[in-house]
Amino acid sequence: MCGIVGLFLKDRSLEPRLGALLTDMLVTMTDRGPDSAGIAIYGGEAAGSAKLTVQSDDPQTDFATLAEELGSVIDAAVSGAVKDSHIVLTLPADKVAAARQALPELRQGVRVMSTGAAMEIYKEVGLPRDVAARFAVSQMSGSHGIGHTRMATESAVTTLGAHPFSTGLDQCLVHNGSLSNHNALRRKLRREGIHIETENDTEVGAAYLTWKMQTGSSLGEALKSSLEALDGFFTFVVGTKDGFGVVRDPIACKPAVMAETDQYVAFGSEYRALVNLPGIETARVWEPEPATVYFWNH
Amino acid sequence: MQTFDLEAQDLRALNTALHAQAETLSQANWEVVNAKGSHAIAVGLDAPIEVTVKGSTGYYCAGMNSQAKVHVHGSAGPGVAENMMSGTVIVEGDASQYAGATGHGGLLVIKGNASSRCGISMKGIDIVVHGNIGHMSAFMAQSGNLVVLGDAGDALGDSLYEARLFVRGSVKSLGADCIEKEMRPEHLEILADLLERAGADAKPEEFKRYGSARKLYNFDVDNASAY
């Protein structure tokens, strides 16, 4: 199964409530997949500055002085905000490449979850309620966000197997379904020089989108060609710096419901996920069509 | 009329109370409020009762229904009226995938649109959709009638047996072994009756009939070597 929720705000007055609304939506989807959960949240963008979200299995020892050490290696002002097993490092945008190079040398085993001006990704093994509480998601504000709760079918229950997957700067992917040609596609993408860490099928889907965009496709074009390249079942929700998109495979057996009002566009694997949103009673509610790419942008 | 609030009481209590009506009929009219997308509302009923659901429902609302009339004032999630035996299910809004799947009897009315696989493997149920239906509808449908006032998606009636399909709008594509057929007087009669019972404002003459070409499910001696 797996559960997906997404909320894209049109009304800025709702931004302080984004984390709380997303948490409620995600917790409602717990019984669609209780083994791991994650969110990607967009907000807090500052000109010339970038955010690296980094995860460690041992944050106590790893994070205390990490921002300071990284700052001296890359010769820039770096600040860090520790959230449980993750730390969000804020640094000048032109120092991102240097920081990514320096991180594995400073701390073995830490993983970069996301890079971008606005996006932060938090994910861990556990129930959505517990994962959301660890990162205090309900306190977060932002312009849009995507959440996922996983029932693993294709690979192990690990932090790196949890969703969302980053597909590039400020871009992420969550998936409900299972891909059946991920082994062949993983080999092909690795030959193309794309880094794929796990045996997870969705990571291959994310890597495919990354590869398409690196070779000149827009995200919309990459999603469209994924309908040909990927075999299996999928409802994908993707996040971008200023919007989010939805695409379902042509069979469309993985459920999806959308709702739109003047204040927001929302996505849920089931209508249950949407019932506590403001004004849902009068929202336009519909099921996205199969093999059709949908996009909303600010 | 007995009102049941799904925010105050749980689903199991609702279905237990409704099932008890099959033993001793004490209350014929029920109203369910705060449905909020809950799964399996009013499943497995077997009594001549009326259940009104306020709000949209989740998976499998009114599944396996016998005798009862279930009226959803909202939209229905996947598998509404799945495997219905008899009775009536009315959805005021849209229905998600596989509405009325495998139904043996009764009438399912969807006032909005139904998505993919509507009436898949239907075995005698009548389904009237006021709007459109999605792809792979009436796949392997065996008997009963599927009436669509709007348009049908891809692969309508793929591998069809003996169900009758009536579509007023366009059909994006027909599935394997499904063909357009002549509308005879007896079909117009069946259609007129179904449209009236479903409260549908349409004339039988506006519809086309589709059915099985009977090439796929009948044994043909020329194909013997393939077995």
Can you describe what's shown?
The complex is a heterodimer of chains A (298) and B (227). Chain A is an alpha+beta fold and 298 residues long. Chain A has two domains: 3-44 and 126-297, 4-Layer Sandwich (Glutamine Phosphoribosylpyrophosphate, subunit 1, domain 1), CATH 3.60.20.10; 46-117, 2-Layer Sandwich (VC0802-like), CATH 3.30.2130.10. Chain A is 26% helix and 33% strand. Chain A is built from eight helices and 16 strands. In chain A, the strands form three sheets. Chain A has a seven-stranded antiparallel beta sheet, with helices on one face. Chain A has a five-stranded antiparallel beta sheet with strand order 9-10-11-12-16. The longest helix of chain A has 14 residues, at 201-214. Chain B has 227 residues and is of the alpha/beta class. In chain B, 10% of the residues lie in helices and 23% in strands. Chain B has two helices and eleven strands; from the N terminus they run βαβββββββββαβ. Chain B has an eleven-stranded mixed beta sheet with strand order 1-2-3-4-5-6-7-8-9-11-10, with helices on one face. In chain B, strand 1 (2-5), helix 1 (11-20) and strand 2 (29-33) form a beta-alpha-beta unit. The longest helix of chain B is centred in the C-terminal third of the chain and has 13 residues, at 185-197. The mean pLDDT of chain B is 97. The interface between A and B is medium-sized, with 16 and 17 residues. Chain B: It comes from Marinovum algicola. Chain B: This is N-methylglutamate synthase subunit B. Chain B: GO terms for molecular function: oxidoreductase activity.
